[in-house]
Fold:
Amino acid sequence: MKRFSEENYDFIVVGGGMAGLCAAISAARHGTKTALIHARPVLGGNASSEIRIHISGADQSLRQTDYAEGGLVYEMMLDNKACNDSFCYSVWDSVLFEKAKKEKNLTVYFNTVMYDAELAPGTNRIASISCVQETTEMRYRFTAPLFADCTGNGTLGYYVGADFRQGSESKAQTGEPHAPDEPNNERMGNTILLKAVDTGHPVKFTPPSYAKKLDEHQLRYRVHSKTMKVDASMAPDPEEWLRLSACSCKAVDYGYWWLELMGDGDDIIPDYEKIRDDLYAYAYGIWDHIKNGGEHGAENYTLQWVGALPGMRESRRLMGDYVLSESDILDHRIFDDAVAYGGWCVDLHAPHGLLDFDLLPSDCHHFTGIYTIPYRSYYSRNIDNLFMAGRDISTTKLGLASTRILGCCAIGGQAVGTAAALCRKYGTDPRGLAPHVPELRQILMKDDIYFPAPFTNDDEGDFARSAVFTASSVSAGSPDMLNNGVSRKIGDCLNGWKSDGIAEGGEELLMKFGKVRSVSQTRVTFDSNFAYPVRITMSANRQEQQRPGVPMELVKDYDIVLLLDGKEVGRSEVRDNHQRLSVTDFGRKIDCDSIKFVFRSTNGAPDVTVYEVRAY
Ligand SMILES: Cc1cc2nc3c(=O)[nH]c(=O)nc-3n(C[C@H](O)[C@H](O)[C@H](O)COP(=O)(O)OP(=O)(O)OC[C@H]3O[C@@H](n4cnc5c(N)ncnc54)[C@H](O)[C@@H]3O)c2cc1C
Structure:
């Protein structure tokens, strides 16, 4: 007899990659009873220990650090940084697991595959999805008023007939500068990564019988040895191409993002297993070439890990009310309904991946700055209750070439989860939420998502906006900037306050309201210094860019003292903080006319730097 259960939630997210995880957690944090249906035993999708892609973002690998993604994805990376200095992927899995498990409104169904979905008869609304959990032989039917497709492949949308595209649009269709003259079905391919370690003594490698043979000429455009120089002159911006593309794997210990195959069928999804077998053969073939095919500086290296589950870059893109294009990206469009942003280059890979031996593996059109992504790209244009987040959002192929970057997928997921909570509040569908997008954006900013000008904090519930700040010392910026609506350094403007050292009893910051306010929560945004990455990565080069431990600039210990007529009426002591956004709930509303913050120590920096203080 088949085991079967029916479950109902407010919001169901399918796919627990970084987009789906952020969508599910943010919805749950905003009071929505949420289920996350996830095919795998670990969270993070391509960023999990099963695939091990590192999280990049709008900071363009340190070229424009002011634009690093904040919010949930940064919170998770800081949690990881606080406990995982050795870049252990199992610990990263555990950090994501703990994050999801802590949310009381969130249930994660691991090892659970959605295999079908149904519309309510005579409507364009998803009524239910059907899932199987292989470990328990359980079958489930899940129902909810709202769904999010975070499968990467747009699988839920596909099952219910959502409009989608794959391959490339033509220039005539989109007007994009780098679109081909004719539409085509090209797509970026799947990849498995490998990791090798230096044992300190020579190690032999015997390839398996199925390994492919590769030679130096075939790999001349693909960095695979310590001393190799790639001729990148055919790249649109050779210098920037080398900076971005070569740094991750200039040595022989990690890679290779260019081990990329897309099959030769019409659709990459049904070819996945065949492509996987070929990737396996090429992965061992590349390592055989490095070890046995001439001098690559790898004599002492041995394989430590070879992925078995290929990461996917590109398949279906579900169509929304707006289709984000390369032109929007290169024009740095600021949409009225912006709910996320991106900043990675338009990073298109060679059409036949590794097999395009005469081409550079990628063709990046670099730019400076960021662009925004409209809310309308995050819900289906023809399925009424379907959101999407991650690499299946509504973009052209060239739009995806930038938006697929994990940081961008994650903040988009956070936007979708928060939007789902607001849909519930207003009893509406994704499209019906349009008038409330300014409110959605304010909640996202409150949760540490950055938005470029003209968007700033104008949250009417934030008592700090009309407060007056004074501080015990100042070495840069000003206490006045703590409520200027921007919670990070941008260019030369600190948008915050930096103390001059840390006095014996701590540095004091006083926030005066000028009248009595009922305060139940404070939110303080500290500097974490985006110039030092905090992501988990297998790349030794990228690891070397990091400092050990928690960012030293983050305030570690501080006290919050609520005052009324100079008398203490409430207090909270925060210890061992390692987060950029530090939220303190007092458990009740406390009448006060000012709040004193006493910053006692940082995680190592000599001064205290605060970007924003809020009070609710
Ligand atoms: C080799 C490679 C290198 C890359 N390099 C970088 C890089 O350096 N930096 C960067 O930022 N990005 C990089 N990317 C891009 C990035 O990894 C993806 O765009 C990103 O992971 C997309 O996130 P996602 O959450 O949308 O989807 P995914 O990461 O694909 O996660 C989707 C999840 O949904 C689950 N799922 C799918 N179908 C179902 C179903 N039916 N039922 C239940 N669960 C399901 C899957 O198991 C998966 O875990 C790279 C991608 C690849 C493949």
